[in-house]
Amino acid sequence: MCITFVIYAVSFVVVFASVGGDETLAGVFAVVMVFGVLIVWPIAWEVGTKGRSLGKLVFGLRVVTVDGAPIRVRHAAIRGLVGLVEIVAFFGTLAAGVALASRRFQRLGDHLAGTVVVRERGAGAERGFAHRFVPYPGWEAWSARLDATRLNEDDYRIVRSFLLRSRSLPPDAREQLGTRILDRVLPRTGHERNTADLAGWPVDVPLTAIAAAYQRRFDGVTLA
Q1: Tag placement on the chain: N or C end, fewer CB within 10 Å?
Q2: Which residues of 110-135 are buried (b: 16+ CB within 10 A; e: fewer)?
Q3: How many CB atoms neighbour CB 86 within 10 A?
């Protein structure tokens, strides 16, 4: 935020000087810059870096959805607009108060956007949220052939939820539920359910490969 204000101050001085001291024109430019620097820039940066502001880059943090998927424009827009109130207007005190009262240290913008900040590196990395899915041995090539571009956040959330909880389910229930999920998501990847390469394998195996393919869409980001 300090960097943002520095950018705004420098930009205003440059613009004011370039308009020859015309206060009306400088005022118009000032409003445009406020909108651009405080709203458009932070939102575009978070989306472009998949959830990392300059500060988060330094501290090894990233914003993801509560389901572990990379944030989209709507997530960043909600965080940015709410941040004008809880961070800019209240000098961060409202954001800090809400975050301290939250189990996941979420500020108000995170609660409304459905996002959470996770640590990507360092001893304090949040293993409770971050989970990297890796295909089972021998399934790497199959996973690499999947077209995961048609999978959406809901598809990934369902697959992820099942995989993280499947071991706690009775075998029959696990296979039935996993099969329904596989029937839903597999056709989106360009594969059909009744293929020979799936015969005899537990449903967790192809679903893990699908989750891994989805994660690869986002440049190696470790999703929750």
Answers
A1: N
A2: bbebbbbbbbbeeeeeeeebbeebeb
A3: 21
Q: Is residue 127 part of a domain?
A: no
Neighbours of 164 (CB within 10 A): 14
Query: Do 200 and 148 share a domain, yes or no?
Result: yes
Task: Give the per-residue pLDDT at 128.
Answer: 40
Among 66, 89, 119, the domain-final residue is: 119
| pLDDT of res. 95 | 86
Helices (H), 116-222: 140-145, 153-165, 171-185, 204-216
Q: Under a CB-based contact definition with an 8 Å cutoff, are residues 186 and 214 in contact?
A: no
Token representation of residue 167:
């071991």
Q: Which two tokens stand for residue 50?
A: 């998949």
Q: How far apart are CA 31 and CA 40, in angstroms?
A: 13
145/88 same-domain check: no
Q: Which residues of the chain have pLDDT under 70?
A: 1-22, 67-68, 119-130, 193-196, 219-224
pTM for the whole thing?
0.53
Total structural domains within the chain:
2
Contact 115, 63 (CB under 8 A): yes
